[in-house]
Structure formats: C-alpha cells, structure tokens
Amino acid sequence: MRVAILDDIHQAYEHTAGVRRLRERAEVRIFTAPFGDPLLLRGFDALIANRERTRFTRALFEQLPDLRILAQTGSHAYHIDLAAAQEHGIVVAKGNSGFSTAAGELAIGLAIALMRQIPAMDAAVKSGKWPTPLGHELNGKTMGIVGLGQVGRHVARIANVFGMRVLSWSRRPDDGSAASVGAVPTELDDLLRASDVVSVHVTLSPQTRGLLDARRLALMKPTAYLINTARGPIVDEAALVDALANRRLAGAGLDVFDIEPLPPAHPLTALPNVILTPHVGWPTDSKYEQFADAAADVLLAYLDGREVTRFTDQH
After folding, report:
1. Is residue 227 part of a domain?
2. What pLDDT is stored for residue 315 in this prediction?
3. Which of 1, 72, 215, 245 could form a disulfide with 26 if both were Cys (CB 3.0 to 4.6 A apart)?
4. pTM of the predicted model as reported, rounded to 2 decimal places
C-alpha cells in the first residue's frame, strides 16, 4: 500500500509511533505543504487527511483512480463529498483519536485571557506603559456549557477546579453525564441568562446552525463573555458583532468563524473586547500523536481485511 499524509503543516507526523507502524507495512509519503496538483496524489492507495485542511470534492476524487481508502482524522466530514466517494468505491474511514482536550484547554485559556485582559496588557507593557486594569476571576463565577459532549465535559471538569458553578445544556440531555462532571442540566435560555461565561461545544448541524442567534445573545448579561471553539456558524456572527460593538456583551473569545481564514477588515478584527485565534483548538503535540495512531489503526485494519468505521453522513 502507498499512503500519503496530507497537509502536515507543522511537520509533526514524521517521528510519531503511528507512522513508524505504518512504514512497517506500507510506503508512506508526508506532504508538509498543500499538494496543489492532484496528479501528485496519483498512485496512492490511501490518504490520511488532517482534519478539514483539504476539501475532497467530486472533481478531486475523479482525478484519483487509484485511491481506495481515505482515513479522516477528527470527527467531522463537512469537507468530503461522501456521495462521490461512495460512487468511486472509496472508503471514508474514521480515524477515531478520541476527543480534543486541547480545544477544551483553549476555551478556558480564552476566557482567562479575556477576563484578565492579557493580550492588551502584554501589548501595553511592551510599548512602555504600565496600566492597572480591573481583572475578573473565574472563581465564583458561573460557567454555561452549550453542548455537553466529551469536550464540554472536559471544560466542566476544569471549570470545577477553578471553583466555578457549572450549568450545561445538551440537545440530548443526560442528567447522569452532567452530574458526573459537576454540571447542572439547564434549559438553554436559562443558562444564557445565568452564566458569566458561555462556552460553545456543540457539533455543527442543521439543528445547531445559528443556535445562538440575536434573540439568545440578548439573553446574556452585559457583563458576560462568550467563548466559541466549536464551529463559527453555531453563533450568528453578525448579531455577535452588534452585541459586542454596543457593549451588550463584555467580550468574546473566538477560535472559529463563518469564513476561514477570517476575511481582511472583518468587523471582529476592529473590536477591542474580542480575542481571535485562527482555528488552533486542536493542533498540539499530543493530538498529532493520537491522529497518527488512529490513522495507522484504520489503514492496518483495512490491509488485514478487517472492518473499519466509516462516515455515513456529514456529522
């Protein structure tokens, strides 16, 4: 088997245990930059996709007659034309590496950075100033978690350590799951009204697109902060900009957006009460190790004729 690993922009795969295991059974090439010309992927039986960095369209699949299996790292396939893959006999397999603890850590980091004004203070001190702003602590505040999946539960555990009261909302309520991480199941509107920090962790779907619209954002306290490390379209971006610009929200920490990369001169970039990061919730040392192991497991199972877990829809 010939395997291509795509979009390894951090050059993180080469020395992973997963790649070493793959190389015992297969020829592996790692692309550390966008491959550009699809012809470069001709002759590869298997591709390992790094999250959503490459869009797999019908046109791309038509140019890859040798491709038999696509191992998708991460839990989403928004960027893959699954119908076209099926028509071309290509297996789209899940490289199940577990949930992203890194995204949960970033959510907490964004909250702290906002509430203690860390980026602004860093810039001020480096420019020779010595400001003394009033900071806000997580301790004693209420954390509202929208989406109590694995990442949401991880955030709940961290929030507990900081001494926060934790409220949670999920599309599929599970009181036992909430109780296991010290969260109180709460209706979404009530959670928004009560929380000092709202952290978004639902999966993007037709049901969650625009979930936090203008009406729901208006329920939040003017002293509250919104954190989104899930997917941009879950929050009505225009309504969020309006709320932030008019100080109906204290601030927002955003790692995801409607359009990525964020277009130049986007209104969010002009707001002083916003911290923006470029969708970096998942790229960490540990996560690449997990992805490499998961992809190796999938491709070695496929080589051995064993069943692999497949994507059956876009979620």
Report:
1. yes
2. 42
3. 1
4. 0.89
